[in-house]
Design brief:
21 strands, five-stranded parallel β-sheet, SQRD, alpha/beta, four-stranded parallel β-sheet, NAD(P)/FAD-dependent oxidoreductase, FAD/NAD-bd_sf, FAD/NAD(P)-binding domain, FAD/NAD-binding_dom, about 30% helix
């Protein structure tokens, strides 16, 4: 029997498990293959929805579905987070004390915000990367009556369009409250343009100019003075604020760091095969990779489709065929009832279209279609 073990029940892990269950149906039914998924939670969160929670457009309860309901019945699912990896002996040990063996392993444990990496950021800033943080951000926005808003971005971070989306959505939020004349926006970004993707930056800068959003590039946050309400950068500049919104730097999950599988929790990954560098039977998906592409749900989705096909071939025919080409697709909320998107891969940069109402409504529809997507129905 070929045992495939998936560690991590987020977007990538769920799609991969369902993809394999479908491709290996006959092998699973005849006990020639098995698919096991280990997750840290019994609930699956739709993480992009946190942005909408922050603006009162979704309730926290709408973010969750029981993980088991998303999985093909043939998948062995356990809420049993992994604590140690023994890659030399093809096994992992979980919190329960149980050891799980495998022939092929896929690691898709995700990433986490690390506000503590910038002194004062945790105490002074709001963000949208956890349910609790998104709820607190919603309250901070609701009660804000005017002043200086600073949007400070660290890298790397999950969901590459979030800094732009937060800015556009806050602008319209305060416009709807007739407070624009009492609010100023300062947007910072760590490199020499307002987004890591050049064409996205070229599209967004005129939009910011139109809205009167001030932006400062080459701004890497060094520390936050919560008393004086100032953010100091490594480059020596200062941004003042009354409300600080952060897109905090991220790391991979602590279990990856603790097991020394990669630097800062990012596992070295072959960009085409998605194999962990130096390992033939260990693969990496989504945020957990160190690949120079966006850490987005669509990235994990496209990677999972490629890896599902290849793992099914390895389990049945002994050879993988398909390469991951760096495909990513990201919606960009561009203000009230307007959105665009960025579609790109390793070779082809994005070319954002003018924002439209149709794309905005398509993104809202996808918020509902996500659950069918991870089930493998889309």
């Amino acid at each position: 029997m070929k045992r495939i073990l998936i560690v991590g029940g987020g977007t990538g892990g769920t799609i991969l498990a369902n993809n394999l269950a479908r491709r290996l149906r006959q092998e699973i039914d005849s006990a020639r293959a098995s698919v096991t998924l280990l997750s840290a939670s019994a609930r699956h969160m739709y993480q992009p929805g946190l942005l909408y929670v922050a603006f009162g457009k979704m309730a926290p309860s709408e973010l969750y579905v029981d993980q088991e309901t998303l999985l093909d019945p043939a998948i062995h699912f356990h809420v049993d987070p992994v604590e140690s990896f023994d890659l030399d002996h093809n096994e992992v040990k979980a919190k329960s004390g149980k050891t799980y063996g495998y022939d092929y392993l896929a690691i898709c444990t995700g990433s986490r915000p690390v506000l503590a990496s910038v002194p004062g950021l945790m105490e002074s800033a709001h963000h949208v990367y956890t349910e609790d943080a998104a709820v607190k951000t919603a309250e901070a926005l609701r009660t804000f009556e005017g002043g200086r808003i600073a949007i400070v971005t660290g890298v790397p971070h999950k969901c590459p369009m979030v800094p732009l989306e937060l800015t556009f959505m806050m602008y319209d939020y305060f416009k709807d409250r007739d407070l624009l004349d009492k609010v100023s926006f300062t947007y910072t970004y760590p490199i020499g343009r307002i987004h890591s993707l050049e064409n996205v930056a070229k599209w967004a800068a005129p939009e910011f100019d139109r809205m009167g959003v001030r932006y400062e590039t080459l701004f890497n946050a060094k520390e936050v003075d919560g008393v004086q309400k100032r953010v100091h950068s490594e480059e020596g500049s200062v941004v003042e604020f009354d409300l600080l919104i952060a897109v905090p730097p991220h790391k991979g999950m602590e279990v990856i760091e603790q097991n020394k599988l990669g630097t800062a929790g990012w596992i070295p990954t072959n960009r085409a095969t998605l194999a962990m560098e130096g390992r033939e039977n260990v693969f990496v998906l989504g945020d957990t990779t160190n690949l120079p592409i966006s850490k987005a749900g669509s990235t994990a989705h496209y990677e999972a489709e490629v890896l599902g096909e290849n793992l099914a071939r390895l389990a049945t025919q002994g050879g993988a065929m398909r390469s991951y080409e760096g495909k990513v697709f990201c919606f960009i909320e561009a203000g009230k009832d307007r959105a665009t998107y960025a579609s790109f891969d390793y070779k082809n940069p994005p070319q954002p279209r003018p924002p439209s109402r149709a794309i905005h409504w398509f993104k809202l529809a996808y918020n509902r279609l996500y659950w069918n997507s991870v089930r493998g129905l889309l």
